[in-house]
Every structure is written in structure tokens, then in C-alpha cells.
Design brief:
Layout: H1 20-32, H2 36-49, H3 54-66, H4 70-83, H5 88-100, H6 104-117, H7 122-134, H8 138-151, H9 156-168, H10 173-189, H11 194-206, H12 210-223, H13 228-236, H14 248-269, H15 274-286, E1 292-297, H16 305-308, E2 312-319, H17 322-331, E3 336-339, H18 342-347, E4 353-358, H19 369-378, E5 379-391, E6 402-404, E7 410-412, H20 414-424, E8 428-439, E9 442-452
Parallel strand pairs: 1-2, 1-4, 2-3, 4-5, 5-7
Antiparallel strand pairs: 5-9, 6-7, 8-9
Bound molecules: S-adenosylmethionine.
């Protein structure tokens, strides 16, 4: 959403001496401070004075969307446009709501309207590019990203977006090199944008420029020696020893910064299939059961909730990232959402669940033996543990069947899964090769495993 910035306010005398202008200023200040209750109350009072006040309607709409009620948001913003039909920010934010809902066509129309009224509105140009990319109109999107950098040549986020676009749709190494140049520029323009740096290291590694990739992370550590992201990624590029699993601080920092764009990135750009594939595998095992206590371990933004819910009497989620949990809370579908490390959570709840499901989360674990043992202990007799991980082909395998890859995620051999599950006590195992998502235009091969605890 674009910044909360009131552009028009009317000085209305009010019953208690308050003016619409003053109410709007107080609302915007509270909105910026994250005080939703106060902001809402002020916007609503402003609307009591002037029911068509476009800023109040617009920002209240943004707040409703942020609180998860996008239908109310769209209705409020439509009312704002009655009095301010040429207000580019309002069209842009309406586009963002459609975009976040996955309606790229409606979003595109909004961004184009914003640009009709304000051709130099560069955030609308960037959003238009993303909406075109979501529709698979890659040539149009590429032109829009080009336009963005013409309109706003110093816009760090524009370079970041174009860098990701080139990386995600790279058809040859030249695209990779262009992606690296854009991501480097994004970081130079905005040194706080560490996600651009992480993506830069990743692109360099994929280009085979391993020394340059390691140098990116070393430079980063010079600026911020405690950075969990840089430490983890340096290990992922072979520049330090791999930890037994991704550290809690790394996971939190990565996913908190990723939370707002996770669904869009994964579903729209990377054809993310892990939740559905895991649900298919669990469905085959669970049949028509509807009375199960289920834990979504590493629930993220809650993409698994709707898939697991039909089998659940109770559905809990646990995750390390408050940002991801906030999205899951907004999405709904859980009986409880807990902030915590999933192994510790499993170990603290012996015999508590009929199903432990973990989609695309154990890719942040190296050795799977402890988490498999914890899942086994947390299950009741005949309970099911289902998870997806990325595949390490046997031919490329390390001695222990685990590898921390340049993406920052671990890969595992089928043999490592079998051994870890067996050691935990899971005799009944079903492990299938599946493509979990796309990355850099190629499928990411993985394993979808379901394993059953015995009677004991
Ligand atoms: C790629 S996301 C997948 C989220 C969700 N399962 C899905 O499929 O959409 C991985 C999630 O696992 C969480 N995570 C990673 N390691 C974790 C750990 N040790 N304990 C709890 N959560 C963890 C991250 O915070 C992130 O939300």
C-alpha cells in the first residue's frame, strides 16, 4: 500500500469543536503508528461529519484490507472514488487489494487508471509490471519494468523487482547477469535492502560465480557481523560450515521480511505446489476422517489450513516467524497459532496429535533424525507424519545424504529420509518424488513423505 498521506481535507465545524481536518490528521498519525483502533475511530468520526470524505474512505478501506476484510475495503474505496475519481493513489491502492487477492486483471485495470491520471506515478508502474507478470504476460511486464526505471531511475525497489523478474524467468545466463546487475544496483541505492543482497548472492552462485557470491556475504558480514542471514547464506555457498539446521534468528528474519509477499511470490511466480501435494498424500492415507487433531508444523501464512481443515477436529499451527503468523491469523482456519520452534513444540506435546503436517519447512533442517523422533513422540498411536523436502539425488549425495544448497535450503536423499523415519520408529513409510515448485525456470524436485506411527 502506498504511504498514508492525506491529500484533501475539509474544514468542517463539528459538534464537539473537532474538524474533519483534525480528525484525519489524528487518524493518519495513529494509522502510521500501527494503532488501528484509534485510527479507525478517527476515520469513522471524520466520516460521520462528511460521509463522502475521500481520504477517510480511502484510508479506512486500506485499514479494513490490512485487517483481512478486503470486500469492505473495496466498497469503501469505491465510495472514495466517487468524489475523487482522478486520485491516482486511490486507484493504485485499490489495485494492490485486487493484486493481493490474486485478481491480477482487476489490479491491472486500477494501475492503468492511476497512470492515466498521473503518468509519472512510479509505484503504480511497478505494480502494473507485477500484475502483468502475474498474468504470465512476460514481454509486457518486462516493458513495464523498463518504463519504471525510465520514470524513476533511482528507485531501488524498481531494480529489485526487475532483478527478481529476470532471475525468475531467466532463459539464458545473460538474463542471470542482468539480474545480478539490477540486484546489485538495488542494494547500492538502498543498503538496508538485504533481501536484494541475498538474491544477488543466490544469482551469482547460480551463475557459477561462487567466489563473487561468497564475497557478497562477506561484505555483508563486514557491515553487520551478527547478521543471521549473511552467516547462513555464506555457509550455503560453502564459505563456512553448515549448521545442523537453519538458526531460529535466520528463519525469523527471512520470513518476517518475506511474509507480505510470500503468497504472491510462491503461488504466482514459482508455481508452489507443496501444500497441495502434501494434502494429496495425506488424503490418501487419512481417507474420510474428520475428527483429527492436526498440527501444521511451520504453518507460515496458512496456505495449508484450508487443505487440512476437512480432516480436523482441531487444527493448530506453529511457526517461528511472527510476520508469517500474522498473515495466517488473517487468513483464518486455525484453532490456535503458536509462535515457536517446531521441534521444541513437538517435544513439549507428547501424544497430542493425530497428524503432524509440515509443508516446505523441513527444508530448513539438515539432519532430520531429531525432528522425526519429536514428531513420532507427539503423535498418538496410528498417527501420521507428513512432510515435503527438496531432493538430493543419490548420485550427488554427501556421506550423510544432506546438503545445504545455495538457496539457503537443505536437500535430502531418499535414504536419509528412510533412515531418519525408521530410527524414530516409523515402520510404515510412503515416500514419493514430486516437483514442489519452480525456481529460475526449472522444477525443484522433492520428496513428499507420509509415515505412520505404530500401535505403541
Ligand atoms: C517456506 S515456508 C512454508 C509455509 C507453509 N508450510 C506453506 O507451505 O505455505 C516455511 C515456514 O517454516 C517456518 N520455519 C522454518 N523453520 C522452522 C522451525 N524450526 N520452527 C518453526 N517454524 C519454522 C518459517 O518461519 C516459514 O514460515
Amino acid at each position: 500500500m502506498s504511504a498514508v498521506r492525506a491529500t484533501a481535507a475539509r474544514d468542517d465545524p463539528a459538534d464537539a469543536g473537532e474538524t474533519v481536518d483534525a480528525l484525519l490528521q489524528a487518524a493518519v498519525a495513529a494509522h502510521r503508528d500501527g494503532d488501528a483502533a484509534t485510527a479507525t475511530a478517527h476515520y469513522e468520526r471524520a466520516l460521520a461529519h462528511d460521509p463522502g470524505q475521500p481520504d477517510a474512505l480511502h484510508f479506512l478501506g486500506v485499514m479494513r484490507h490490512q485487517a483481512g476484510d478486503s470486500e469492505a475495503a473495496i466498497a469503501l474505496i469505491a465510495r472514495a472514488l466517487v468524489r475523487a475519481p482522478r486520485h491516482a493513489d486511490i486507484h493504485n491502492n485499490l489495485g494492490n487489494i485486487h493484486k493481493e487477492w490474486g485478481d491480477a486483471v482487476a489490479a491491472e485495470a486500477c494501475y492503468r487508471r492511476a497512470l492515466t491520471f498521473q503518468p509519472g506515478h512510479f509505484t503504480a508502474v511497478g505494480n502494473l509490471a507485477v500484475a502483468l507478470e502475474m498474468q504470465g504476460r512476460l514481454d509486457d511486464a518486462f516493458r513495464a519494468y523498463g518504463l519504471l526505471l525510465t520514470v524513476a531511475p533511482s528507485y531501488a525497489h524498481g531494480y529489485h523487482l526487475l532483478g527478481l523478474f529476470l532471475r525468475n524467468h531467466a532463459r539464458d545466463p545473460e538474463h542471470g547477469r542482468q539480474a545480478a546487475a539490477c540486484l546489485r544496483r538495488a542494494w547500492e541505492l538502498d543498503p538496508d535492502n538485504l533481501r536484494a543482497l541475498a538474491a544477488l548472492g543466490n544469482v551469482l552462485y547460480l551463475l557459477g560465480e561462487h567466489d563473487a557470491a561468497r564475497q557478497v556475504y562477506r561484505d555483508w558480514l563486514l557491515r553487520d557481523p551478527e547478521s543471521p542471514l549473511a552467516r547462513h547464506m555464506l555457509a550455503a555457498c560453502g564459505g563456512a560450515e553448515a549448521p545442523a539446521r537453519a538458526g531460529d534468528a535466520y528463519v525469523r528474519s527471512l520470513f518476517d521480511s518475506f511474509a507480505d509477499s510470500f503468497d504472491e511470490q510462491l503461488l504466482q511466480h514459482l508455481d508452489y505446489r507443496a501444500p497441495q501435494l502434501l494434502a494429496d498424500a495425506l488424503g490418501a492415507a487419512l481417507g474420510g476422517r474428520r475428527d483429527l487433531d492436526i498440527l501444521d508444523a511451520g504453518c507460515g501464512t496458512g496456505l495449508c489450513a484450508a487443505l487440512l481443515r476437512p480432516w480436523a477436529r482441531r487444527l493448530d499451527g506453529v511457526d517461528l516467524s511472527p510476520g508469517m503468523l500474522a498473515r495466517a491469523r488473517r487468513r483464518g482456519g486455525y484453532d490456535a497459532l503458536v509462535e515457536g520452534e517446531l521441534t521444541a513444540h513437538l517435544e513439549a506435546h507428547p501424544g497430542a496429535f493425530d497428524v503432524v503436517a509440515s509443508a516446505d519447512t523441513l527444508v530448513y533442517f539438515g539432519d532430520l533424525r531429531r525432528v522425526c523422533a519429536a514428531a513420532h513422540a507427539a503423535l498418538r498411536a496410528h498417527g501420521w507424519f507428513g512432510f515435503s523436502v527438496e531432493a538430493l539425488e543419490a548420485g550427488a549425495a554427501t556421506a550423510d545424504g544432506i546438503e545445504l544448497g545455495p538457496s539457503g535450503r537443505y536437500r535430502h536423499t531418499r535414504a536419509h529420509l528412510e533412515t531418519a523415519l525408521l530410527a524414530a520408529g516409523f515402520g510404515d513409510q510412503r515416500i514419493a518424488p514430486r516437483d514442489l515448485r519452480n525456481e529460475s525456470g526449472a522444477p525443484v524436485h522433492g520428496w513428499v513423505a507420509v509415515a505412520r506411527r505404530g500401535a505403541g
